[in-house]
User: What shape does this take?
Amino acid sequence: MTTITIAIIVLTCIISISAFSREKIIDDFIFYPPAITNQHQWYRFVTCGFIHADIPHLLFNMYSFYMFGEVIEDAFDKIYGSKGKLLFLLLYFSALVVCLLPTYFKNKNNYYYKSLGASGAVSAIVFAFIFLAPTAKIGLMFIPIHAPAFLFGIIYLGISYYLAHRGESRINHSAHFWGAVYGIIFLIVTAQLLSEFRPVDNFTIDIINYFKK
Assistant: This one.
């Protein structure tokens, strides 16, 4: 059975690969704050997540999403029951918007700023996983070093925050940071409202047990 994760990956790959040879798709889909401010093209918050700078950029995002997406999709089914699939979709697509809000307010009249890629939404999915399984071992692709998920998360957030404020990179580290934070907040709030599962309690117990070993 095709999962929502696979469907999003396939759709993103089709659009991204098509855009590599069609400049118009890039121009129409890319996150461009002045177009949102002056022409009210709000859809760009979402469409920019379906295009990527190049093949490595696309592969890294979709591989990361694949590794964690189906796990979270399954976890959401367990936590939210029949609402799980809908909430998984809501997390992914709302993360595309939320992770870019700080970038938008900072650059809404900056005619030199553009951004693309699904990194913010992928970060939200990864950090939902980290909060659900903080002691699981995770690492970076092609680097044979793994660390507890909570430690990886702290390092990731710290580096993303530092690089976002440094502002000397073409990579939107702000979207990475806020996407990650949003993934945790989304999980906590929706679980509190729509299920009996309490992510904060689960996270705390796992961390305490980890340090007791």
Q: What stands out?
A: The first strand starts at residue 137 and ends at 139. The chain has one domain: 4-212.
